[in-house]
Structures are given as structure tokens and as C-alpha cells.
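Chapter review: from sequence to fold.
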Amino acid sequence: MIKMNVLIISPYFYPKKGGLENYSYNIAKILLEKGHDITVLCSDHEKESKKEIVDRIRIIRLKPDFILSNTPIRFNLFFTMSKLVRENNFDLINAHTPVPFYADVAAIVSKRYSIPFVLTYHNDNIKTTFAINIIANVYNYSFNLATLKLSKFIITPSPYCYNESKFLKKFKNKLRWIPPGVDINKYDIGNSFKIHDDHGIPRSSKIVLFVGQMSKAHAHKGIDDLIKSFKRILDDTKEAYLFLVGKGDMILEYKKMCQSYGILDNVIFTGFVDETELIEYYKSSDVVVLPSTTVQEGFGMVLIEGNACGKPVIGTKIGGIQYVIKDGETGLLVPPKNPEALADAIIKLLSNEDLSKKMGENGRKLVEQNYTWKRTVEMTEKVYNEAIE
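The C-alpha cell string follows.
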């Protein structure tokens, strides 16, 4: 093994929650455990820039001058990054996107100082609002394209991007698909009634679980479709509860929606929960659902986390989800924006324990085979070594 000194550039980083943050954190942590030198440069929402050590990872957090649609902008980033590169003998720079700016500056710095540059491209930069989507398209065909050209290799955790992204088609020879992983020792197969007991619901109750951000920026998660479908599910399964785990500025709107449907007593908004408690939610659930509506869902980490805990999963046939769920084996796929089909799939699994159990077992086997962080990091090391050679 060649010991490497790697600079990881990420728009945001642990403990901020999100798929990109989770992926970059686990890559950094395990590479460090394997003997590599790792430095992370990222943005933060704090009032001041700071340096810190988290799980032995050296992290430099820069205060943004402003934030545009979740994109942190810092005017002197090029000079700050250049100074860091001059003062350290980095073998490679690995930047994470689709959040713009940080990765684009990293590509320019890598070119300026002749350091191999690897881009981890989590998903296409697509926005739902008209005005922001115009800006995103201008970016995609200018700075994003330049960053892709400057990359020695492009890692994508998203099977959708690897197979279908219109922006990556020109760069197939550079492309490497490296899926994310799950800590299979933490997320292990098993059942629990802890969440039933904590929330005072009968242990005989069926739990439908959603995990994710509930904000305007994450409207593509399809929570409104899930709420619509749950009204029908309650007509079929009286002792069913929908647990919505996560935080966001749309929770009040979703509560009003539940109230208008007369189902608020059976829908529980938990807010943010830490990882230990999250695993209990998975283990207490009967099915994990991700009803996303656009290709912004590049993978769907909650699906493999649910499978790792031995639970069947339901998702929409869109983006990366359609590649992650093995339809009829580890879970069920339904058309996006179709509450009726979603309700049918959920009812099917809630009413058939043998089928649910079998799908959960198959899901666990799939995760053990394809989605461990050990495998993810081994594949990443190979790309790094190839880039440095």
C-alpha cells in the first residue's frame, strides 16, 4: 500500500448531516485508519472559521461570505486553498460536488500546482425552482464542465449518474462508480419495540418509516405523496403509524396536510435523531419508504441502511433508487408521484409478514455483498493510486 497525503474538499462536512457529508466523512475516517494522511477543507455555518480534529481527521472549516441556495461562497477561497497546498505536500486533491464552487476552485488550484485531481460527483446539479434552475444550467455548462475536464478521474456514488447523467456522458473513460457503504456492525439485522414503547403505541402497531430532510430544498423527497398514500393505508390497516424522521422548514406544512386528511394522530414527526436512535427506528419499523420524485435522488442511503437492518424497502423508479432496490427481492419499486401505487406497495408488505421478512433478509445479504465502507474505501484507494501514477 502506498501511503498518500490527501486533501479532501467538501462544501460541508460531518457533523452536518446529508448523503455527501456522510460519504466524505466515512472515506476520510477509514483512509486515515489505513495509514494515509488526510486533511479536510470545507465550509461551515459558524460565525468564525476554525480548525479542529474530529475522529483524528484534521478539518479546516471556513466561514462563508454568503450562501446561495445551499452553496457556500467565500471570496478568497482560491488564495486560502492555494496557501494550504503550498504549505503541505499533498499527493492528491479529492473534491466533492454537486454543490458548486468549492470543487471548481479545487480543480483550478490542482491545475495551478500540478496535483492530481479526483472529483467525487454525487449527483447532477438540478434545482426545482425556475430561477435557481436557470443558474444551475448556466453553471452546469460552464464551470461544472471545466471541472469535469480538469479531473483525472470522476468517482460517482450514484448509479444513476454512472448510467444516465447527460453531463458525464462525455467523460465515460474517466468515470468510476464507487457506491457508498453502511457500517454493518452498527446497522445490523434485528427487531425492536423501543420506538413503540417510547411513543406509547401498541407493539402490535405497524410502522412505516421515512428518514430524510423535510425542507423546501428537499421537496423532491415526495413526503406529500407519502402523506396522501397514508390516508388510504389507514383505511386498510387501522393500527399503522407513519414516522417521519428528520428536520426541515416544511414540517409545519406537512402537519397541516396531515390534519386536513384527518390522519395527524397516526403521523409522528420526530425531528432530528442521532445515529444510535435512528438505528432503533429502523429496527422498530416494518417498512422503510423513500418516495422521491426527481433524479435529484442519486442513490438513497436510507434504503441500504434499512436493508442492513433487515427491513424491506419501497422506493420510486427514478434516479439512483431504481438501481439500489432489487424489485421483488429486497423491496418494491413504484412509479414516482403516484400515491395510489405507493399505498398499494406499502399495504402489500404490511399485510404479508413472510414476504417482508424474506425481502429484508435479501436486503441484508445485498448490503453485506455490495455496500460496506470497507469495500468503498478499497475501491477509492485504487482510483487514488491510479491518479497518482
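Two observations follow directly from the output. The two ends are 13 Å apart (CA to CA). The first helix runs from residue 19 to 33.
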